[in-house]
Design goal:
homotetramer; mainly alpha; 66% helix; 0% strand
């Protein structure tokens, strides 16, 4: 019996996998931070293209079916893969970065002022 | 003594944290897949802006110093945060998505053809 | 009396203006096609940010008032400015490019099949 | 004899053409500012993809040959087409917007401080 442990993967374990994939192909030299940021933006554009012109309700229904669901998952995977490559290139611990950002956001978006509001922090009264 | 366990965080643990942050502010209703994909693209643009006009060597040096290093880590964090929100909204297991994509990429980019090459799979001879 | 001729400007006249602005600052060497494409994507992200989380009806109302209207016009201007810089760097006649693309789109999206439909050409029955 | 007048086209004339193309297909209702900004970002991503991983020198050489040159022109055309659609949806005069932005940029980037520098205005000494 195969033990399902996917969602217990750490970012470190995932990063190791993608770096292994990359190094087997000797792609490291292409992976400058600038190229990787560009790749991230390109993938974010491809993800957006799947949702363009569509209503929210239509998207939610489509997500439950393949091939649409698969395409969305693939674009999301591409974004995470390039983010992991960039974490390697820029020597960033992503978990730590997220936690540090949440602490900062907590100050920018105090619950009392931002509850139920989509305003940017500099527009909160 | 606080045990440092950041890089051992699973994506599930990180996702739980950002969803908690969000739900405390009742931002869930804004988090449609379309809005979140848009947010991802915006953050990818902000990350790119940090590298625009700069040479690779200049970027690598700057990354080792703050405030530049902090700003890069914050933009990378924002990308992962929105990706986790989208994973929640679209019911996607990111680890599984990455592994499935790597398997697909393995077929698209066989080592023998893609070694040391930056060509797209449909341009490999 | 100053004759209002703004909307009669040709792309060539506009391009001459932005190139003049640039050359006065000796920015030409930074304007590689790759950097300019990156700049375009960054500006497109900034434009998107103005609309993020907002409903269509709210956006249409806000557009009629400043400062929101001004910010949108400024981001749109930035996109056109960088597109003109790229047209210069890549030696592209934008008018001709648009007309050639419309002819191609006419074949990809025949009226009979695409009327009232937001489907991509490869999804039209 | 067909008179070549491409580069003498005004933005107004180009806009009229793309709106005509659109209205023949009854696509107007899809053209909310939010969808159009999204489309712009997607096209900017596709443009970037043509340059990703490539060196500047390689790009400049490739631009002189088709099919690469055609693909770049098509992506640039798509960006201008969606910008014209957005100009229509948001009632923006693009020429005027560019000129207003150049005036603003003149104040943000005085020649004396920005000559030969790629720094952002808020980083100029």
């Amino acid at each position: 019996m195969r033990h399902r442990m996917d969602d217990q993967d750490t970012l470190t374990a995932l990063k190791r996998r993608v770096i292994e994939f990359r190094d087997a192909r000797a792609w490291g030299p292409f992976h400058t931070p600038k190229n990787l940021a560009m790749a991230l933006a390109i993938e974010a554009g491809e993800l957006q293209e799947l949702f363009l012109w569509k209503e929210d309700s239509e998207i939610l229904t489509s997500l439950q079916n393949d091939p649409f669901g698969i395409r969305v998952r693939e674009e999301m995977a591409d974004i995470l893969i390039f983010l992991l490559y960039l974490a390697q290139a820029a020597d960033v611990d992503l978990s730590e970065a997220v936690k540090a950002k949440l602490i900062k956001n907590q100050a920018k978006y105090p619950v009392s002022k931002s509850f139920g509001s989509s305003k940017k922090y500099n527009e909160l009264d």
